[in-house]
Amino acid sequence: MKPISLTNKEQATADKELQADLADQGEIPDHIAIIMDGNGRWAQNRGNLRAYGHKAGVNSVRDITEACAQIGVKYLTLYAFSTENWGRPKIEVNALMHLMARSLRKEAQNLKENNIKLQTIGQVDRFPKKCQRELREAILCTKENDGLHLCLALSYSGRWDITEAVKKISQRVKEGDIEPDEIDDETISAHLSTARIPDPELIIRTSGEYRLSNFLLWQLAYSELYITETYWPDFRRNELYKAIQSFQERDRRFGEISENNTKESMNLSVQELTS
Ligand code: FPP
Prior knowledge:
By secondary structure, this protein is of the alpha/beta class. It is about 45% helix and about 10% strand.
């Protein structure tokens, strides 16, 4: 049987219905972070160069960003280039830089029109000048927007982020601005590159790898993990909706116990437990 082909308009209507269902079913996370993985394998499985997978991955970036903006996600953080990625062959790194510069130039106006605010975390000053320029321009172009915050993690690693925070806090201690005893969770969060961004409620990793790969190590302490086998270039909004649905079914306890499972409802006294 031939698949039913939908026109763009029908597709948009079907998508709106899915989005409405998702919002009715439960909470939409304020902050979603994504480890976009599997571009290289996606391309190699098709007998193509790895860079071809990164190029295809940009279409997923566009679709996921647009869907997040439409369903009311406030922050979307994408792991676009890790500190460790500098160790890849020069030809792949160059292809990625070129792709990023080109995509930013092409998409800046789109971001602006969709009320999306672009920002970055990471050592962007390690990027080629051209890339830095495109980034600056796209950030400037979207600076008045107050819809979705699209945060690109570029030359980023969680350990780098924590190390930088420790340096800043140590300096403040040295200057007598803060006492060592006063340092707590909030102090550390406030000195990370994500200081003005809430911690992600949901972290998605594509391509079936079960690791964090040095991404947002501090910020992910209580995030719900969603791992899919799908390679990033095939990860589109329907997959995102599945991830959010899975998030909505989780019982988030933050190390405590759920409300309907209190000591009273378990009907056990401390004495019974210890005797
Ligand atoms: C991981 O797949 C992906 C990356 C290292 C790069 C992701 C970057 C993009 C999709 C371009 C983003 C562009 C903008 C403007 C944000 P991999 O190469 O590690 O795949 P593999 O695990 O199959 O080798």
